[in-house]
Each structure stands twice: as structure tokens, then as C-alpha cells.
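Bit of a strange request maybe. I'm writing a small parser for C-alpha cell strings and I need a real example to test against, not something I typed by hand. Could someone generate the C-alpha cells for this chain?
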Amino acid sequence: MNDTAGHSRAGLAARLGIFARTFPRATPEEVAAAVSHAGYPLAHWNFTAIGRSTLAADVDEAQVTAVRRAFDGAGVAIPSVSATFNLIHPDSQLRAAQTAQAVRLIGLVPDLGADVVTLCSGTCDPDDMWRAHPGNLTTDAWTAMRRTLDDLLDAAGSARVRLGIEPEPGNVIRDARTAARLLDELDHDAAGGIVLDPANLLSPGSVPRQSEILAEAVALLGPSVIGIQVKDVAASGFAAPGAGLLDYPAMFRALAPLAPVPVIVQDAHEDDAARLRHDLLRWSAGVVA
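Reply from user aminoacidic:
Good idea to test on real output. This should exercise your parser:
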């Protein structure tokens, strides 16, 4: 393994980011400063970081420009933007309204300097877009997801950005195999890819098989992975990296064949952000032969 694979300590340091909403503030300047102070060169943007809605229905173009200016000024890049909503929400009117909002947001994303828009593939649960539902396994759910996704893919193609679809255990795209099925169905030039979060593919019971499960995910999805998010698996659900059951050096070894994409910290507390950066760099250092 060498630095050109993007997995050296220096390589990860340049690709390491954190959710901007880890640092909720009144202004984008304050958010950008907090990200920079914690040592991260990248931030995954969500308008909730400044008290706005994720889909930016309450955001105008001047505010988008202000976010870009603030992060440029702090020396922090925005590689990706959240447009998460329930793609198959049972309320069809709400789903249509949110799809329209997401289409508008996708068109604004290049103004933030980002080229990836992250999504939730959806659940039949009407109250929590991350909660599993038996209906998620049905043909109807898959068809509804594809219908909404196709509208978003068209918008992404026009904006020249990519949609990052993240396998989530409670969603229609729930694991590496369903993600691979989706990729097989999409046109080869579709504006989509995979955001891979290893913790989403594991549970407390399956952690002993971590390396095997992640190796399968890399084999199935590798060329289509456009971002990595990191959190930890805990008995209570998910936790900040290092606060649960995952073997992080083993995780970095499993992910080593992937292209050097942004690695974004999730489920962190802002007071712990600097420590997490240090630990992730330390855990990744052993990957280099």
C-alpha cells in the first residue's frame, strides 16, 4: 500500500471531514471557524447547521453564497451536501413537495463548491425516515424509490453533481447487496454513486465478521463509492467513532482498495471532534505497509 492509494496518514488528513451540523451556530462563519478549529479540512454541509431546513426551502441564493464565502475564508472545503428526506414517504403530497425542494437544492449545490448530494433511500415508516418497516422489502417500495430517485438523478445530471446513496439498515437500500442491485439498474452514465458507512452494514452481533462483511461491500460497490462516513456500532445503536465495537485499523484495511474519497465523521459531539480526528489518523496509519 502506498500514498497514491490515498490511505497514508497524510492522505487521510487531507480527506478527513465532519458533519457541519456537529457545530450548530447562528452564522456560517461561526460554523466554518469551528470546523477549522477542530482540525478538519472538509465539512459535509447541512443547512440545519445554521438553523435552516435540510432541503433549504427557507434559504435563498444569497445565503448559499454566504456559506460558500464563509467556508472559503476559513480554508474548509464542502465536498458534499445533505438533501436527506424520505424518498418513499407514504404521504404522496409531502413526498412530491420535498422532491421539488430537493431538486431546487441540487441545483444550488455547485455554488457551495460541492459535487455530491447525499440522500436517504426511504422507508414506509411515516414518522422516522431511518426506521425499518416491513413494507421496505416490497416491490412497491422499490418502485416508489426508483420513481423519486429518477427525478433527482435528472436534476443531478443537469447540475453536474452526483447523488450519494447510503445503504441504511432501516431503508429500502439497506445493505451492500441492495445497493449493488440499484447500481445494476441505473444507466452507466447516471449521476449516482454510493456513500459507504461501515457501521450501517454491521450490528453488535455481526461485528466479529466485520472484515468479511466490509470486504464484500468493497467488492460489490468499490468503483461506485464516492464518499465514506464513519461512526461506531454500539449495543444502543450507533455512537461516535471509537466509542463502540468497531475495529478501526481493520476497517481502514478493508476500505484500502477504494479510491481516495472524503471520509466524514458522523455522530460526534463538538467537544470530542479534535480527539476523533487524531484517533482516526492514528488508526489509519497502520494501513501503510
